[in-house]
């Protein structure tokens, strides 16, 4: 399959910046607020930061109070059915608010909008509630869409069936001061048979490494210490680019950026997790010793029906190699229960993998049928009762292992980038270890954004409680 290189369109950037200024002048002095709710994965979170950046530039201020908002945006996800159901609920609830505030603009965008049956419903039943509908390929056009909506005065829909060009360098509103996400590629070519993503996010496109490096350097100059590289399948990064760059090489280049302390990435597919990548993670001091390695299912029959392109045995030996090569690595995973045709025996294979790998965290999902995917028409849908039984069993097993393994972390000393004051107790600070485990510890708010050493004094299943030891200057001072 051909992988497309991204085309950057600077003319389009100028055009959008022009419209942003136009709107800014026109809305001046109006004290307008925006409210954004984001569903789904980090790609959507990142897109929402870009959308918020445009709204802010136009002159809107963020509000957490939906009733105060003059512009409401839902950035949607359709990975499972319940994500979609939530959106219809949210939009339906806006009826009253719309009646009270005739100038309120409601926009919906994101993955869900790339499906015809969703558009039909929003065009029909929700015609009055929703003003602007756009998809995943044209988020940079937000300002233009707002202007058009103001001109025409009725619902507007702008959905592209494929990506055309990508516009870089539009304003973006970062949620965190010290950490940021950076897209390295868009789309997915894998077509796992249960998954809607390739249909709503299009084919794989890698960004030029120079643009990525430039963006990260700018972020670092602005105070960012940790970056998360985003892609549905980061190990395919670079395919289609001319310079022979790979994800492993990209990691090595980013590792050299001065002032940057931590590098994370999301998500890696087991099928092309090669030695080059393992060694890059092992060798690069800033790249976290943390690998998210979705298994999805343990049985070879199910894996093949899912089109995952690896076997249970290959996966197990990969996990083993990762553990052997990368010191104190943590491995997390995604698992689907109840894929069509899954038998009790198949499910036992999943449990077997869970027991062998001993994940530091597992995101477990009940299979959700997605219209348009291959699996939607497969025979052997599993009964709800069976699925619930398996799901509970899986959860019990993964939680037990996580708790046991976390208990082994007592008295260990970890490096942590302090992120925030704890939501539940303001005497506590929170941060994450390199292994992506949440740590709470008592400390002064002046430590936020700093790298510190923390000694673990108590362990829970989902987090650790620590004791502040000292500040450290550089993450790369690894020896503890
Ligand atoms: N690109 C990532 C996954 C993105 S979606 C990867 O391949 O690892 C995140 C997770 O949602 C998937 O790993 C899968 O476990 C789950 N998922 C995707 N489609 C699903 C469906 N139809 N039903 C249930 N879970 C699903
Ligand atoms: Fe979906 Fe598979 Fe692509 Fe992940 S790799 S986004 S699960 S199709
Ligand atoms: Fe959802 Fe789209 Fe992400 S479907 S999981 S928001 S790529």
Structural account:
The protein has helices at 10-27, 42-58, 81-92, 95-100, 116-123, 142-152, 197-201, 209-221, 247-255, 275-283, 300-305, 312-325, 344-357, 384-407, and strands at residues 4-5, 33-38, 61-62, 71-76, 105-110, 132-134, 156-158, 179-183, 185-186, 205-206, 226-230, 262-266, 290-292, 330-337, 361-366, 413-421, 428-433, 438-442, 451-459, 463-472. It is of the alpha/beta class. It has 3 domains: 4-158, Methylthiotransferase, N-terminal domain (Rossmann fold, 3-Layer(aba) Sandwich), CATH 3.40.50.12160; 179-407, tm_1862 like domain (pyruvate-formate lyase- activating enzyme), CATH 3.80.30; 413-478, OB fold (Dihydrolipoamide Acetyltransferase, E2P), CATH 2.40.50.140. The strands form 5 sheets. It has a 6-stranded parallel β-sheet with strand order 3-2-4-5-6-7, with helices on both faces. It is globular. The model has no long low-confidence stretch (mean pLDDT 93). The structure holds S-adenosyl-L-homocysteine (SAH), iron/sulfur cluster and FE3-S4 cluster. Residues 40-41, 43-44, 77-79, 111, 196-197, 200-201 line the site of FE3-S4 cluster (F3S).
């Amino acid at each position: 399959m051909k992988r497309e290189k991204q085309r950057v369109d600077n003319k389009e950037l100028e055009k959008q910046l022009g419209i942003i200024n136009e709107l800014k002048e026109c809305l001046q002095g109006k004290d307008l607020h925006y409210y954004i709710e984001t569903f789904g994965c980090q790609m959507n979170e990142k897109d929402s930061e870009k959308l918020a950046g445009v709204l802010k530039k136009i002159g809107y201020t963020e509000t957490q109070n939906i009733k105060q908002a003059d512009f409401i945006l839902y950035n949607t996800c359709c990975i499972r059915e319940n994500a979609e159901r939530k959106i219809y609920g949210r939009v339906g609830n806006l009826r009253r608010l719309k009646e009270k505030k005739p100038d309120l603009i409601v926009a919906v965008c994101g993955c869900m909008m790339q499906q015809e049956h969703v558009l039909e419903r929003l065009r029909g039943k929700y015609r009055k509630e929703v003003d602007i509908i756009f998809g995943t390929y044209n988020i940079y056009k937000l300002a233009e869409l707002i202007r058009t909506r103001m001109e025409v005065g009725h619902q507007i829909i702008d959905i592209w069936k494929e990506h055309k060009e990508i516009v870089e360098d539009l304003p973006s509103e970062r949620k965190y001061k010290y950490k940021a996400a950076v897209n390295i590629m868009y789309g997915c070519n894998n077509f796992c048979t249960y998954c809607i993503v390739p249909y709503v996010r299009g084919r794989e496109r890698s960004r030029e490494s120079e643009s990525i490096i430039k963006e990260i350097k700018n972020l670092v100059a602005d105070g960012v210490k940790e970056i998360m590289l985003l892609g549905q399948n980061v190990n395919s990064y670079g395919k289609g680019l001319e310079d022979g760059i790979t994800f492993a090489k990209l990691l090595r280049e980013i590792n050299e950026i001065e002032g940057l302390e931590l590098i994370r990435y999301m998500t890696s597919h087991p099928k092309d997790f090669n030695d080059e990548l393992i060694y890059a993670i092992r060798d690069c001091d800033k790249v976290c010793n943390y690998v998210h390695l979705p298994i999805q299912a343990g049985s070879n029959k199910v894996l093949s029906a899912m089109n995952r392109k690896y076997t249970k045995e290959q996966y197990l030996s990969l996990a083993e190699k990762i553990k052997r090569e990368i010191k104190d690595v943590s491995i997390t995973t995604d698992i689907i229960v109840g894929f069509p045709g899954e038998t009790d025996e198949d499910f036992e294979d999943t449990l077997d993998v869970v027991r062998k790998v001993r994940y530091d965290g597992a995101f477990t999902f009940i299979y959700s049928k997605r219209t348009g995917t291959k699996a939607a028409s497969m025979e052997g849908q599993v009964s709800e009762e069976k699925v619930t039984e398996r799901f509970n069993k899986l959860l019990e097993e993964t939680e037990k292992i996580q708790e046991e393994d976390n208990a082994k972390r007592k008295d260990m000393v970890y490096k942590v980038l302090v992120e925030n004051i704890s939501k539940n107790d303001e005497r506590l600070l929170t941060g994450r270890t390199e292994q992506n485990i949440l740590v709470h510890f008592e400390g002064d708010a002046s430590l936020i954004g700093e790298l510190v050493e923390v000694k673990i004094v108590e362990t829970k299943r989902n987090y650790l409680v620590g004791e502040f030891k000292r500040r450290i200057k550089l993450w790369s001072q690894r020896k503890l």
